[in-house]
Design goal:
Length: 140
């Protein structure tokens, strides 16, 4: 398939990549601009722009391969730590619009700051209100 998507081209074999693993639904390969050695991307073989257009079955396959490769990187390269990162939309920093999980090995003093919490504790009522809104939207 040539839809102009570089990751679809890697799946099809028409663009090169340092492949790490593949099965029928997923592919893992090294990021071309690694933050640290072993920086790896895990993608579904079918084109999905982001999480919002994706079914749970396909994402479960991506999550399963992410776990497999994260453990293999930890065992083989023995980084000091590891982040799993995934961006949806330009505002979230997404630059390639084919869903991918980053497996990001961390080194001591690599100066990458990943902060996933704010500085202020929310009011309980605010949390309960937002939780209720999300609960209503959850599809089983
Ligand atoms: P995003 O910014 O969308 O979360 O991540 C996209 C990632 O894809 C970037 O880290 C970038 O280095 C990587 N990337 C972009 N083009 C290619 C490519 O052609 N080959 C590989 N292996 N990685 C790519
Ligand atoms: Zn694609």
């Amino acid at each position: 398939m040539d839809n102009g998507c570089i990751f679809c081209q890697i799946v099809a074999g028409t663009a090169p990549a340092a492949k790490v693993f593949e099965d029928d639904q997923t592919l893992a390969f090294l990021d071309i601009n690694p933050i640290n050695p072993g920086h790896c991307l895990v993608i579904p073989k079918t084109h999905h722009e982001n999480l919002f257009t994706m079914d749970r079955h396909t994402y479960q396959a991506v999550a399963s391969t992410t776990l497999l490769i994260a453990q293999a990187i930890q065992q083989s390269l023995q980084p000091a730590g590891m982040n799993i990162f995934q961006a949806n939309g330009e505002e979230a920093g997404q630059t390639v619009f084919h869903l991918h999980n980053h497996i990001l090995p961390r080194l001591e003093n690599d100066n990458l700051r990943v902060e996933v919490h704010g500085m202020q504790t929310a009011k309980p009522d605010q949390l309960l209100s937002i939780a209720a809104t999300i609960q209503t939207a959850v599809q089983s």
